[in-house]
Amino acid sequence: MLEVESSSISSSELPPIPGKRYFTIGEVSDLCAVKPHVLRYWEQEFPQLKPVKRRGNRRYYQRQDVLMIRQIRSLLYDQGFTIGGARQRLSGEDVRNDLKQSQQLIKLMRAELEDVLQILRR
Fold first, then answer.
1. For the packed helices 63-73 and 99-121, what is the interaxial angle rounded to 10 degrees?
2. 10 has a pLDDT exceeding 90
């Protein structure tokens, strides 16, 4: 596993999210360039982030959790929000209408669809 400083990777450089239903904390850590202890901390700070907990209290994140983590990461690391500011921003209705966030999601989805297309062409 390649150790990379979290703030040195921009949100646009994150790897595509694989087509799985559940992800472990280690996988999410790699997909979002955020260390596992940070993810556990964010669970306490952001009510929107609720991974499924199974046997042994292990966390299993779903695709919407990974997208939420990437959104939180972008607000904190790329846009310079504080935890409180990011929490307030995510709880507001204007989030759904925010053009920049929509463009980021479209960009991620497009990259993932291109990956799927390459797999299908093989």
1. 130
2. no
